[in-house]
């Protein structure tokens, strides 16, 4: 138990959970007959968006605890290992948790978790990394909370298109009638990465804009990897790149780091996804053209409310669900025109 506490405390600190909350969580563990226990396993604790979502989730839980409710919310780190995450699910189930919340390491591994949860009759709420649909539909008490990745890609395309319509030379700097671009993808086989990549370009093509892909590469959602990949693009294509599509803000910031370090005069337009504080700061500075806001707070609220109702055995309002299993929170466009609305 002591080693388990140390692991939980380390992860809790990384997602903004205060020490006093962890103490009350331990007290709750002794009151298993009265406390609602929600187990949360995330794919990697150093992902900026997931970190933000977990902080929001913890704050929502703390507000709920101020009433008569007794809630234990434990967040653990899957460390990018599906094996580790499966073990964490087993521990939550063996300790009698009321509901599981799972940010999958491998989206194709959901079937195993759903099967375990179903055998234990413990509801499971997947979030952020969408399971394969067939896996989610294996059980009536399996749900997904997230956002429609295709919409975020479309928003990226709109940001580029709007800038082009306002001033074609701002985007098509060489005046050849095409937008030369590079793509930084989040993760091979990841649902969001695939859809953001596809729909960002599909939107431009649908509206009749001509595009030319110079290169693409995977940077696993990480700033440092994106900076390295963007540096390679710059060495290969110099200033030919006119737009940089990035599947999230962290990679967009990495691309910006590489562009800044390269000292090229004609900087390409960079777009991201998430609307993190650092991403919004880059928009304010004019280094990022825009991003698709992934509403972490609203997603955290939906995750918690769904989990709370499931833990109490409440019937879920079907009007809140899409296709009986899904809750999608809409993306929103952020550019220099409205960025101050999203960060103070």
Explain this structure:
- It contains 13 helices and twelve strands.
- It is an alpha/beta fold.
- The strands form two sheets. A six-stranded parallel beta sheet has the order 2-1-3-4-5-11, sandwiched between helices. Strands 7-6-8-9-10-12 form a six-stranded mixed beta sheet, with helices on both faces.
- Strand 4 (124-127), helix 6 (133-136) and strand 5 form a beta-alpha-beta unit.
- Helix 7 runs parallel beside helix 9 (191-206) and helix 10 crosses helix 11.
Give the topology, please.
Blueprint: H1 2-14, H2 19-29, E1 36-42, H3 48-65, E2 71-77, H4 82-94, E3 99-102, H5 110-120, E4 124-127, H6 133-136, E5 142-146, H7 149-166, H8 168-171, E6 178-185, H9 191-206, E7 210-218, H10 223-237, E8 243-246, H11 249-262, E9 269-274, H12 277-284, E10 290-293, H13 296-311, E11 326-328, E12 332-335
Parallel strand pairs: 1-2, 1-3, 3-4, 4-5, 5-11, 6-7, 6-8, 8-9, 9-10
Antiparallel strand pairs: 10-12
Short description:
The chain contains 13 helices and twelve strands.
- CATH superfamily descriptor of the largest domain: Response regulator
Output the helix-strand order: HHEHEHEHEHEHHEHEHEHEHEHEE
Give the DSSP E fraction (strand runs of 2 or more residues).
15-25%
Structural class per helix/strand content? alpha/beta
Mean pLDDT: 90
Q: Summarize the amount of helix as a percent range.
A: 40-55%
CATH structural architecture of the largest domain = 3-Layer(aba) Sandwich
- By CATH reckoning, the class of the largest domain would read Alpha Beta
> Which segments are poorly predicted (pLDDT under 50) over 5 or more consecutive residues?
1-33
Characterize the overall form.
elongated
Strand order of the largest sheet: 2-1-3-4-5-11
Query: Counting H and I runs of at least 4 residues, what is the number of helices?
Result: 13
Main sheet properties:
6 strands, parallel
CATH topology of the largest domain: Rossmann fold
């Amino acid at each position: 138990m002591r080693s388990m506490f140390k692991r939980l405390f380390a992860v809790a600190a990384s997602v903004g959970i205060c020490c006093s909350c962890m103490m009350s969580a331990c007290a709750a563990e002794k009151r298993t007959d009265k406390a609602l226990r929600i187990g949360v396993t995330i794919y990697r604790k150093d992902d900026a968006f997931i970190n933000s979502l977990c902080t929001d989730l913890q704050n929502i839980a703390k507000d709920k605890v101020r009433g008569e409710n007794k809630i234990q919310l434990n967040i653990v780190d899957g460390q990018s290992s599906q094996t580790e995450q499966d073990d964490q699910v087993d521990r939550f189930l063996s300790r009698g948790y009321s509901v599981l919340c799972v940010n999958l390491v491998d989206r194709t591994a959901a079937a195993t978790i759903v099967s375990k949860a179903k055998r234990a009759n413990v509801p499971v709420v997947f979030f952020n990394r969408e399971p394969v649909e067939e896996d989610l539909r294996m059980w009536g008490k399996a749900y997904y909370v997230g956002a429609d990745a295709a919409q975020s890609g479309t928003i990226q395309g709109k940001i580029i298109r709007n800038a082009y319509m306002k001033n074609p030379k701002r985007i098509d700097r060489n005046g050849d009638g095409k937008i030369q671009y590079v793509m930084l993808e989040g993760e091979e086989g990841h649902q969001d990465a695939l859809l953001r990549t596809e729909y960002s370009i599909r939107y431009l093509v649908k509206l009749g804009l001509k595009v030319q892909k110079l290169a693409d590469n995977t940077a696993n959602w990480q700033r440092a990897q994106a900076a390295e990949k963007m540096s390679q693009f710059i060495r290969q294509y110099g200033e030919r790149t006119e737009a940089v599509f990035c599947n999230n803000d962290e990679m967009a910031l990495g691309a910006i780091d590489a562009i800044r370090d390269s000292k090229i005069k004609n900087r390409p337009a960079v777009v991201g996804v998430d609307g993190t504080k650092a991403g919004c700061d880059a928009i304010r500075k004019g280094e990022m053209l825009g991003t698709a806001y992934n509403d972490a707070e609203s997603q955290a609220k939906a995750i918690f409310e769904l989990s709370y109702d499931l833990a109490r055995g409440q019937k879920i309002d079907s009007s809140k669900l899409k296709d009986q299993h899904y809750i999608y929170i809409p993306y929103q466009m952020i550019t220099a025109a409205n960025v101050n609305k999203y960060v103070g």
